[in-house]
Amino acid sequence: MRKITYIKDLGPEMDGREVVLAGWVHEVRETGKITFLILRDSTGIVQVIGKKAETDPKIMKAMSLPKESVVTLTGILKVNKEAKKGFEILIKKIEDLNPLSTQIPFEVTGKVPADIDVRLNHRHIDLRRLETAAIFSIQSTILNSFRNFFFERGFKEIRTPTLVSEATEGGSEVFEVKYFDTKAYLAQSPQLYKQLAIVGGMDKVFMVVPVFRAEKSNTTSHLTEVTQMDVEVAFADADDAIQLLVEAVSQIIKDVIRSNSAELELLKRKLDVPKVKVVTYTEALKELKKKGSATEFGSDLSREDEQKISEIYGHYVVVKDYPTKVRAFYSMPKPDNPELSNSFDFIFDGIEICSGAQRIHLPNLLMEQLKSRGMNPKNFEFYISAFRNGAPPHAGWSIGLERLTMQIVGAKNIRETTLFPRDRKRLTP
Predict the structure, then answer these.
(1) Which H helix or E strand runs over 362?
(2) Residue 372 sits in a domain of what CATH number?
């Protein structure tokens, strides 16, 4: 097979040049004298034409392919100001690489809307939709930007276990698995292990990991398996972590704006570089009360509260100093008011995309917090004992990749931003 050119690399400057393209048949339109074939590859679409008066009849006939046929073709690029791209391809040769042997389950062009469950049942077809492809192109930029941001600041990327011996955040929302002759669990979070890395002297770490939560929720913003982008840094407090978070999210959005302008335009999404408002839980609750919130001091904020917070303060809001009892056991209580913790959430357009905190690095305080939540410190002995060996103060946070993508692209359902989503009812494909 000759060297193939991506559609994104075509341009009017190639007028008169022969090109070899490969992809899928997006649409075919036939008139009496001309056949128009719209070819799509992973980088875009282009119009290919066959003229009855000039093109071999066998090739004209071969162009009449079903939508989504996978083909390679050779043609001459010709400038045409009436074409959408300012040029088109005059066909010379076409080959159907794998003739369709079943009916495509829904219309990829979007002219006939398809239910999301139908699309997810056939995700390999759904990925051919320009809108779906745009979402995952943007998600790729998010991941790349996140990694580059921290590599440039001297962080090390690490990997942590998926199989753990104890629920890492307590509670019952864990998936139990048989592990030889004992029980194990799928990790709810890499939290304990990234802290151990900090104690071990890796003072700035990040990771991208899957996490699992057996939540029996059926909302548009929850899944049982998600991807977390985690960060932990030594000799830092909550305010240091918040500053790092704001800078990272701002850089990610800048990179998406710069690298994915075509995808954002396709999705009809306009982004602005974040101007982040930082408020305390106490301040936010006071404003929420004015808006009719029934949340009492000491309770966690509801989804409705988060939506109102964005209405009050803007698109990007960090809420800090949450009540200690509603945060994870390893969140550091505030020295001057132990009822509150050095913790925070990042709320993006009404949805929490990130949680973080300064961590408890004092073993006795860790045991107190575990006991206060009905958890047995003996089950965390490997974790607590590490802090007896010179653990520095440290802080960190975790962004949910799918939720961040969801808010950046303006999706209404987290399943749109998950390649192969897993929830209470979906375990395939």
Answers:
(1) none
(2) 3.30.930.10
